Amino acid sequence: MIKGLFKLFILFIVYSTVVSCSEQNIPDLPENPGNTNQGIASIDQTQINANGGGFIIRVKTNGTWEASSSETWCTLSRASGNGNGSISGYMKANTEAERSVIITIIAGKEKAEFTLKQLAGNGSNPDPDPSPDPNPGPDPEKPSGYAGRIEIPVLKGGSMNIFHTWTTKENGKETVTYSYEYDCTKKHVRWVAFTFDNVTSQKNVERKDAYQTDPNIPAQYRTERSDYYQPYNRGHMVASSDRLYNREANSQTFYYSNISPQLIDGFNQGGSTWDAIENKVQEWGKVSNSQDTTYIVKGTSIDYAILATGKNGVQIPKYYFSTILSYKNGQYKAIGFYIEHTYDKSQNIKQCAKSIDELESITGIDFYHNLPDNIESEVERSYKESDWAW
């Protein structure tokens, strides 16, 4: 759980002499342009639009540190830590004049200060997701529309990050296929999110390779077939096999916005560890009872760790993750996975397993924040191997 200035969670850092999933902790700080890197900390952006949105601070120090925000409308996920870590920040929507906030990081005698500006609003109540919600929640602090769904992480927001939800009509009822947040500057999704229920778990069609450009992405930021080349191929984020309940839903997984350049042998194909994780998440996720739902988020490290820059400026992620929140028989449970983008096929998926809190600390993404606070805190704190059929 990442939420509020005074809610803390523990960052576990495991050291080993053998390279494994358990070693994949906080990566090094990225080289950020401009005056965004101040020694002990860096920030990924210093301007947020009026609709509100998120930002990430990455701290790099050996000792303890403290973080603070000068304004209550700008919250931080962590107020302190020890060693390398990440902080997610979030600004509420602004309906008035341009405003600014100072974020301060102190580690021993070192100090970093970042001034962030938020653009002026137009006097209305802007919403990062204007899509209609047939069942809006009563909590004004929760986002509305599709962004208010349980599977949707906190949006990073900003004019260069596009949030969209694909839907289909199933028996006359709207069914959500999946949602994504796409970073135009990286030409890659930050994450995708979807659910399995008794409708979307069904297999009614076969895969059809309907690759196509995404009309929701401005032309200059789209990717296409020529951007995926050896040793990388077209790796689905939402797998084709995740959406077989109808033909349109399956076709929507073939938009290039849902495609990531992945190493062919040893990662995207050939019995890889990532393939095993995806299969296991799919196996655990599918349900038949109409009262049960499974919430999935898959994503990458494009915010902080890039393996390479491909053709046309497409960023190739260094790490991938997957989370699963299961609601069955009235009970929630959750688990996550984190893996490096390599040729290695030897890793056991248990070595890659992490709690949601650990994943949030690594990625800087706030998962499942639309759950009630008490449930979110409990399911994200840890996981039990015995809860999952390995």
TrEMBL record:
One of its GO terms (molecular function) is metal ion binding. Coiled coil: none annotated. Residues 127-138 have a biased composition (Pro residues). The keyword Nuclease applies. InterPro entries: BACON (IPR024361), DNA/RNA_non-sp_Endonuclease_sf (IPR044929), Endo_G_ENPP1-like_dom (IPR001604), ENPP1-3/EXOG-like_nuc-like (IPR020821), His-Me_finger_sf (IPR044925), Ig-like_fold (IPR013783), Non-specific_endonuclease (IPR040255). Residues 175-374 form the ENPP1-3/EXOG-like endonuclease/phosphodiesterase domain. It comes from the Bacteria. The keyword Thylakoid does not apply. Residues 119-147 are annotated as: Disordered. Mg(2+) binds at residue 268. Residues 174-374 form the DNA/RNA non-specific endonuclease/pyrophosphatase/phosphodiesterase domain. The active site is at 236 (proton acceptor). Keywords: Endonuclease, Hydrolase, Metal-binding, Nuclease. This is Endonuclease.
